[in-house]
Amino acid sequence: MAVVEELLRSEADNTISFGNHKLAAKAKLEDFQHAGDLLKVKTFGEITKLEKNGMFLYESVPGTSVLNFKEQENGVEFIVEGDEDAQITLGLIDDTEYEVFIAEKSMGTMKTGLGGKLSLSVELQNAGEVAVKIIQA
């Protein structure tokens, strides 16, 4: 998978791709319009962060490149790549239980707190692309 050179782009299937974990210096893109929403991305080797309409949506430490990020009524799914294992935090629905799938394997269920954040670790080093799917349980 190639990094997202333009930092954030809309795909033909109505998903978005964002992030560039290969950048040495911070880069950001603001006020990107997609499906009626305003998106903002900040990315480089140490962190990738995505906001939608001023609200937290995605963060990874270290930075990652994300393809085909799709929000659905019952969760999110995307493909992620990075040079190192990453801690990913997603902004979801408050106080809700989700089943987490990494590389099509269930990792069990996790519950968000009052802030709606769900954190997971994804092994990326030497893994190439890894599919992540989070579905409301």
Structural key phrases:
137 residues; mainly beta; Chondroitinase Ac, Chain A, domain 3; six-stranded antiparallel β-sheet; single chain
Précis, in short:
This protein is mostly beta strands. Helix content is 0%, strand content 60%. The protein has a single domain, classed as Chondroitinase Ac, Chain A, domain 3 (Sandwich), CATH 2.60.220.
Whole-number average pLDDT?
95
CATH class: Mainly Beta
Shape: globular
Radius of gyration: 14 Å
Q: How are strands sequenced across the largest beta sheet?
A: 1-2-7-8-13-10-11
Distance between the termini: 30 Å
Extract low-pLDDT stretches: none
- Please trace the helix and strand order, writing H or E for each element: EEEEEEEEEEEEE
- The fraction of residues in strands falls at over 45%
**Tally of strands:** 13
Oligomer: single chain
Structural class: mainly beta
What is the helix tally?
Answer: 0
CATH topology type? Chondroitinase Ac, Chain A, domain 3
Task: Summarize the structure in words.
With 137 residues, this protein is mainly β. It has a single domain (8-136), classed as Sandwich (Chondroitinase Ac, Chain A, domain 3), CATH 2.60.220. It is 0% helix and 60% strand. It has strands spanning 8-10, 16-18, 27-34, 37-44, 47-52, 55-61, 65-72, 75-81, 86-91, 97-102, 105-111, 117-122, 130-136. The chain has a 7-stranded antiparallel beta sheet, with no helix packed on it. Strands 3-4-5-6-9-12 form a 6-stranded antiparallel beta sheet, with no helix packed on it. A hairpin with a 2-residue loop joins β7 and β8 (75-81). The chain starts with 7 loop residues before the first strand and ends with a strand. The model has no long low-confidence stretch (mean pLDDT 95).
